[in-house]
């Protein structure tokens, strides 16, 4: 699963842990977070919360934040480019590590 550090990500972790106990198929869980070098990244908090769940956490560092700041004009929304860069990095990482399924903890506003 991919973690952003938000409450939706942690809810997803809890749901997948519960599901793993009763699912008709066996699966392993790993947590992957992308540190985009944006100020305020909750890496330390994320590590503690995931460690308590006994799920391995991998934090990958990719400086996409400076790219977004350089490309997007001041005052304009960064969401589309930031999301595209984040997903591209995450998909490349899971593919390189032979991960077959990915779960993203979006909320309704993200989906819309």
In short:
With 112 residues, the chain is mainly α. The chain has helices at 7-22, 43-51, 65-71, 79-96, 108-111, and strands spanning 2-3, 31-35, 57-61.
Q: What is the fold's blueprint, element by element?
A:
Elements: E1 2-3, H1 7-22, E2 31-35, H2 43-51, E3 57-61, H3 65-71, H4 79-96, H5 108-111
Parallel strand pairs: 1-2, 2-3
Order of helices and strands: EHEHEHHH
* Strand segment tally: 3
User: CATH class, please?
Assistant: Alpha Beta
CATH topology: Rossmann fold
Helix content range of the residues, please? 40-55%
Order of the strands making up the biggest sheet:
1-2-3
Report the C-alpha radius of gyration, rounded.
15 Å
**End-to-end separation:** 21 Å
Shape: elongated
Query: What is the average per-residue confidence, as pLDDT, rounded to a whole number?
Result: 84
Structural class: mainly alpha
| Count of spatially separate domains | 1
Give start-end ranges of low-pLDDT stretches. none
Give the DSSP E fraction (strand runs of 2 or more residues): 5-15%
CATH architecture assignment name:
3-Layer(aba) Sandwich
How many strands, what sense, and barrel or not for the largest sheet?
Answer: 3 strands, parallel
Give the helix tally. Answer: 5
Give an overview of the whole structure.
The chain has 112 residues and is mainly alpha-helical. It has one domain (2-111): Rossmann fold. It is 48% helix and 11% strand. A three-stranded parallel beta sheet has the order 1-2-3, with helices on both faces. The protein is elongated.
């Amino acid at each position: 699963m991919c973690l952003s550090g938000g409450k939706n990500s942690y809810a997803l972790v809890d749901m997948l842990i519960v599901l793993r106990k009763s699912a008709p198929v066996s699966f392993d869980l790993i947590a992957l977070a992308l540190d985009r070098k944006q100020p305020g990244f909750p890496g330390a908090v994320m590590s503690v919360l995931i460690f308590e769940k006994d799920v391995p956490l991998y934090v990958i560092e990719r400086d996409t934040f400076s790219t977004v700041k350089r490309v997007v004009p001041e005052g304009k929304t960064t969401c589309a480019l930031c999301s595209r860069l984040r997903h591209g990095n995450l998909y490349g990482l899971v593919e390189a590590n032979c991960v077959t399924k990915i779960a993203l903890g979006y909320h309704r506003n993200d989906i819309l």
